[in-house]
Amino acid sequence: MASTERARKDVAGVEEALQSAIDSGHADLAPKAAFNLGVLCEDRDDFAGAERAYQLAIDSGHADHAPKAAVNLGVLREGQGDFAGAELAFQVAIDSGHADLAPMAAVNLGVLRDDEDGAERAYQVAIDSGHADQAPRAAVNLGVLREARRDCVGAERAYRLAIESGHAVMAPMAAVNLAVLCEGLGDFAGAERAYQVAIASGHADLAPKAAVNLGVLRERRGDLAGAELAYQVVIASGHADQAPQAAVNLGVLCHGREDFAGAESAFQVVIDSGHADMAPKAAFNLGVLRQDQGDLDGAERAYQLAIDSGHPSAAYCAREVMLQLRGAADAICGSTP
């Protein structure tokens, strides 16, 4: 209780100090204090107080603290459902021309806006700024927006801008998006190239995802050796989600070409991973594999793993197959010559 009271007094003391700085009218300290007071008010859910403080910082016209407060105020208003007010605040930050905050506000405004033309204009402002982080982010968002508008040519241009930026996250994200777009348009060679760009980025999540997608694409095109190479890249990455997915895909591929040892090995890797979604699916697939080879005891053991997992689809399918297997066995045992 004493500590809670002490914390309240500490916050009250900080507020008083900030208010004193604001009241001083100092050209730098007053706007900074107003911004900090806004953050403090937000932290304790005093949104009205936060808005008043941010507005003080904005009204100061300070080169840094005014646009910073405008961005925070825009995010605050957006969170409260005041989208018109948020748009006004973001526009203030954009109009400031601040090297970092104006592009950030433009991206936020693009996400906020309902009208697609307005969103495009906002993203273009961020792209034109050339900001190292916000321009590639805006380019990816613009690509997604143009895809939704079925402007595939415009989407490709936007994604290529992000790829060319070399941004650690946005470039591989744009490469994956571009690859999916190319696939949808039937440009499989273009899709392969884009997936390779994402893979080459080495991004911890996007590179393995791109490699899985590349494997699936190659399988569809009948390039099974190429698909296996792609899946092996993902498996070697050890990615928590994509590696088990790639191993399941590889197991199915091996089963299809009657490489039963390879298939069993791949499925076992996934089962051993304990992945909540993929391990039960691998167990079911292993059951099917063993059943196809006439190893009914081994199949039952694999199906039982899937059943025990409680997975909504794998457990259900395994249970149905097990019932059929046991029913067939009962029919054989109960038959008369």
Description:
The chain has 337 residues and is mainly α. The chain is 81% helix and 0% strand. It contains 18 helices and no strands. It has helices at residues 2-24, 29-43, 47-60, 65-79, 83-96, 101-112, 116-129, 134-148, 152-165, 170-184, 188-201, 206-220, 224-237, 242-256, 260-273, 278-292, 296-309, 314-333. The longest helix is centred in the N-terminal third of the chain and has 23 residues, at 2-24. It is elongated, with a radius of gyration of 29 Å. The termini are far apart. Mean pLDDT is 94; it is low at 332-337.
Notable features of this structure?
81% helix, mainly alpha, 18 helices, disordered C terminus, 337 residues
Give a quick precis of the structure.
With 337 residues, the chain is mainly alpha-helical. It contains 18 helices and no strands.
Mean pLDDT: 94
Sheet having the most strands: none
Number of strands: 0
Helix content, binned percent: over 70%
* Termini Cα gap: 85 Å
Topology of this protein?
Blueprint: H1 2-24, H2 29-43, H3 47-60, H4 65-79, H5 83-96, H6 101-112, H7 116-129, H8 134-148, H9 152-165, H10 170-184, H11 188-201, H12 206-220, H13 224-237, H14 242-256, H15 260-273, H16 278-292, H17 296-309, H18 314-333
Helix pairs in contact: 1-2, 2-3, 2-4, 3-4, 4-5, 4-6, 5-6, 6-7, 6-8, 7-8, 8-9, 8-10, 9-10, 10-11, 10-12, 11-12, 12-13, 12-14, 13-14, 14-15, 14-16, 15-16, 16-17, 16-18, 17-18
